[in-house]
Design goal:
This protein has 23 helices and ten strands. It is an alpha/beta fold. The termini are far apart. Mean pLDDT is 82; it is low at 1-17 and 623-650. The structure holds adenosine-5'-diphosphate (ADP) and magnesium ion. Adenosine-5'-diphosphate (ADP) is lined by residues 148, 383, 391, 409, 411-417. Adenosine-5'-diphosphate binds at residues 148, 383, 391, 409, 411-417.
Length: 650
């Protein structure tokens, strides 16, 4: 059997070109001890075996201990039988002999029971830890195209409840089987006491088992329904919390409440149905063995009266029957657990079997000594694998080291796509992208992304302090460096005014800050890493013009020799660039200085005018904090835009 391949990117480390030092810290968590067998033709349990085998030592110890404990407790009813017959009835053996034996067996049984349980749960949570890490590690390797498709709620439920049900089955199924094997031992003891009575006593057991199966069978769908409906409620709550701004701005609270109470009602129905089924079956399952007891009393009593059976045997049978009840019930449960675990495992494997599309080549090298020379060669790209509609087609672009280029185009023209391709969030379909004459697909992803810093249009901040947010890409940075980056990004001033300054913890996703403030922190975060190539994708759209110009002025001084690609709509931003390129209909349609493009390309003026309209709308919606500092510049910009619009008319 071939060994499962886990984390091929670590088992085959890329050849290190020279001295690339990863910017972020290397995680020091304990890696999972095994992976899932990648052979999809195997059954789910076989595929999970490597994980189980990684913990087999402790697991087998647990099973053996629980077997030992059960074998010991099985002796007790038999001892009771002998005690009654030999000590109480016939006085051939002193009673204390049996008492000590039973106490001793009980003690040893308790100790082994303790360790059996402890080790079993340890195995269970070890397996859970491994599975969770396997999934999470896989998720971190997945490409953007994967995240475009899947819902985060799905991933979260798979990383929680599905793992739990697989883990439960993998650890408890063998335990239940051990307990059932004890039933055989108990049955043998009963046979040794009295064959006929043993069969009479066991007569109800098949019914206990069948009732258990039936109970689980009818409860299984209900428990699935409950799970699904709980997820529904969670989704509504999640969307309400995350989308609270939208909900409130449309005064849609009542609508949301109605949706929530509807979902809550459906959950309630499920739980009541579940309780109803439980109420029907539980008394049946619990009382069926009493029938067995009655039979034992009837037939056993008859035998005792006629002198063919000792009175202790009835007591022993009584104890055995009670002992057997649990395993038989659990056997029915085991089948259902198995079905559920299989379904869960399928959901987990669905994620694990998906391969990342953007990966390091086996012989990938680190990007070192990057000068910032960027070249797009006849690039074709589409988000959808087999889409005939390309976002970029035969796209050519060369940016010289140290150049600042503005990329302009209509909304949806593919500007952000250009940025995403340069950092290999996606791979090009045809053609190539080169940095310093090296195809970026030949470079390691870590070194590529350390050299190309992107500030995305929707900056995501973590719920940690401002300082930690800025230092995200370089946790070892000194406070001086962090502050310098914040100053260059025009963020230092407002950060100092926050309650706790740099130690202020931002709310979830940074919602306690304005859009412009978030953008400035995001810029500082990238500046701190100080990449030789930087892409600003609409990164200053929510920052008012004056502050933005200060930022760019600061960037210019601080980043001499850095290659910068600015994606922007604002004239003020665009005019800072050495060169402007206009993207339309999948390729570059104009390339030159701002003034040249205004003169030669009517479309350019059109696109700018369109952007200016958006800008005015955005202006009206801008936050107070942003507006106060914008006043001084607003009119000048509008004049400029008016002149552009005039120049653009044919
Ligand atoms: N993740 C994605 N999956 C599929 N299509 C996308 C994705 N992102 C963008 N697109 C599509 O690609 C085109 C270009 O998008 P984008 O590069 O974001 O435009 P821009 O940044 O110029 O506004 C748009 O038509 C958009 O609908
Ligand atoms: Mg965009």
């Amino acid at each position: 059997m071939k060994a499962p391949t886990l984390r091929p990117h670590r088992t085959a480390p890329p050849e290190r070109g020279t001295d690339f030092v990863p910017i972020t810290e290397v995680a020091r968590n304990e890696a999972p001890r095994a992976g899932i067998d990648p052979d999809t033709s195997l059954s789910w349990l076989r595929r999970a075996m490597p994980v189980m085998r990684a913990h087999q030592g402790i697991f087998l110890t647990s099973l053996i201990l629980s077997f030992v404990g059960l074998v010991l407790t099985v002796q007790i009813p038999n001892l009771l039988n002998h005690a009654i017959n030999n000590s109480i009835e016939h006085h051939t053996v002193p009673l204390s002999h049996y008492v000590w034996w039973i106490v001793g067996l009980g003690l040893v049984g308790a100790v082994s029971g303790y360790f059996a349980r402890l080790f079993l749960f340890e195995t269970a949570y070890d397996i859970e830890y491994d599975l969770r890490n396997i999934i999470y590690e896989h998720l971190t390797r997945m490409s953007f195209s994967f995240y475009d498709r899947v819902q985060s709620g799905q991933l979260i439920s798979r990383a929680n409840s599905d793992i739990r049900s697989v883990q439960m089955y993998m650890t408890f199924a063998p335990l239940i089987l051990v307990q059932c094997s004890i039933a055989i031992v108990a049955f043998i003891f009963m046979l040794s006491i009295n064959v006929v009575l043993a069969f009479i006593a066991m007569a109800t057991m098949p019914f206990v088992y069948l009732t258990g199966v039936k109970m689980r069978k009818s409860m299984f769908p209900v428990s699935w329904i409950i799970q699904a409906r709980l997820a529904e409620v969670a989704t509504i709550v999640d969307e309400n919390v995350n989308g609270v701004r939208v909900v409130k701005s449309f005064a849609a609270e009542q609508q949301q409440l109605r949706a929530l109470s509807g979902a809550a009602e459906r959950v309630q129905w499920g739980y009541i149905k579940d309780a109803d089924l439980r109420a029907r079956f539980t008394p049946l399952v619990q009382n069926l063995p009493q029938v067995g007891l009655a039979l034992v009393l009837l037939f056993g009593g008859y035998m005792v009266i006629h002198g063919t059976l000792g009175i202790g045997a009835i007591l022993a049978f009584n104890a055995y029957l009670l002992m057997l009840q649990a395993p038989f019930m659990m056997l029915g449960m085991l089948i259902m657990m198995g079905q559920r675990a299989a379904a869960s495992a399928d959901r987990i494997y669905e994620i694990l079997d998906e391969q990342p599309t953007v990966t390091d080549k086996v012989d990938a090298v680190d990007l070192v000594g990057c000068t910032g020379d960027v070249r797009f060669n006849h690039v074709d790209f589409a988000y959808n694998q087999n889409a005939e509609r390309l976002v970029l087609a035969d796209f050519d672009l060369h940016i010289s080291p140290g150049e600042t280029v503005a990329l302009v185009g209509r909304t949806g023209a593919g500007k952000s796509t250009v940025a995403r391709l340069l950092t290999r969030f996606y791979d090009v379909k045809h053609g190539s992208i080169e940095i310093g004459d090296r195809d970026i697909r030949d470079l390691t992803l870590a070194s590529l992304r350390a050299n190309v810093g992107v500030v995305l249009d929707e900056p995501f901040l973590f719920s940690v302090s401002v300082r930690d947010n800025i230092a995200y890409g370089k946790p070892s940075a000194s406070f001086e460096d962090i502050e310098a980056a914040a100053r260059a990004a025009g963020a230092h001033e407002f950060i100092s005014r926050l309650v706790d300054g740099y130690d202020t913890v931002v709310g979830e996703r940074g919602y306690t800050l304005s859009g412009g403030q978030r953008q400035r922190i995001a810029i500082a975060r990238t500046l701190l890493v100080n990449p030789p190539i930087m892409v600003l994708d609409d990164a200053t759209s929510a920052i008012d013009v004056q502050v933005e110009q200060e930022i760019h002025a600061g960037l210019r001084v601080q980043m001499q020799g850095r290659t910068t690609l600015i994606i922007a709509h604002r004239l003020s931003t665009i005019s800072l660039a050495d060169r402007v390129i206009l993207l339309d209909q999948q390729k570059i349609v104009a390339d030159g200085t701002h003034a040249e493009l205004l003169k030669t390309t009517p479309l350019y003026a059109e696109v700018l005018a369109q952007a200016a309209e958006f800008e005015q709308e955005a202006d009206a919606a801008a936050s107070d904090e942003e507006r106060t500092s914008r006043d001084g510049n607003g009119n000048g910009l509008r004049d400029l835009l008016d002149s552009v619009r005039g120049g653009g008319q044919r």
